[in-house]
Fold this sequence. Notes:
The structure holds two protein chains of two kinds.
Chain A: H1 7-42, H2 57-61
Chain B: H1 2-18, H2 33-37, E1 47-51, H3 53-58, H4 61-72, E2 78-82, H5 88-98, E3 107-112, H6 124-131, H7 137-144, H8 151-170, H9 177-185, H10 196-208, H11 212-219, H12 224-228, H13 238-252, E4 256-261, H14 266-269, H15 274-290, E5 294-297, E6 309-311, E7 314-315, H16 317-331
Amino acid sequence: MRRLPEPLVVAFVVVTLLGATTWLARREASANQAAFDEAARSGQVPPAPPAISGATLTIQERL
Amino acid sequence: MLAWIVVFLALADATSAALRLKYVQEVEWPTDLFAEANLDRPAPLDVAIVGSSRAHYGLAPTAIDACLGEKLGRPTHTASANRLAASLYAADLVARDLFSGENAPKVLVVEVAPESLNANHFELDYNVGASADIREIPDCVAAAVTGPPTLAACARPITRGVENIAFLLHRPLTDHRHITWMALFQGGGQYCYGSPDCEARNADYDARHAGRWQTRVDRVLPKVKSERFRDYTVESGLPSAHFVALLDRARADGTTVEVVNLPVSATYNAEVPPEAYAAYLAWVKPTAETHGARFLDLNLPEWQARALYVDPDHLNHTGARQLSERLCAEVVDALH
């Protein structure tokens, strides 16, 4: 008879995954907010990163 | 095992909602809605724009703000949040999530098009999958009984939390910085104005996409009638129901709504079945006005010249500037 995963192992995996997600999301949101606030304060917009080629051909067909 | 799966899906969904991950999308274009969704603005937006890629190209927040600022004698703030192939179903949910309640703007610009109100919208499954929450499932299932979307699309919100987490974890591997920059510093929208750098980027973009007109003439126009106007029905279905819901919510928020029938080129207009277009106009204008919104029809001959377009139904930077200034003239009275 197959045993289900140990609840502790499952909980560890889930918590790690959701924790990493939370950290990444908050890091990005905080960085965006800081950049936005600085631009509003200084009146200066940072230089734009290089643009990628834009929508792929497949996506262009779905516009 | 099933219990674990349910618990995991529920936790993922709750985490996704708490972190506002809903709009981390698998398509890093046209707008970084994740950046917009998580942004704390110091004051309510003057103008918010929702719609599809047509609004993304045709309405430039920096041009609108430059125009409004000059007319009002104060700085204004416009943001644009658009989704790939959005019907009014998706536009309503974006407006609800980003631009309602305490985040309600003074003016909400809603892009409409005959395709976007078709009950049998050609990308309704995608719209549902990308924008719906679990609370949308009952209505979705009811609609799926007789037509689009499919039941599979209706079920997607159940797994959306896990999907969003996967998209977020993939994000460091994608080069989305310029999309994020556009959301943060030019209010979303494809084109920006007001600096030499912006003008150079606009010109560069249009130059790099010079072939797109012909590509869409070859690959998209032949199927406009069959794909986008298949079983054309307005007045019923999810898109029109959500259009009305959007109008009513905005009115309850005290927001002035400007419903805009954006222009497309004469080449594209030739593919739109006249009877479908007539049915659309006969419904959308009185419906907008009945629900307290203003209606602006810009799909007029003066906006349909080839020179204004990067492809048959998306404006280029020249067309976007002109259209944005036209919109500015239309909404400025609501901002005094």
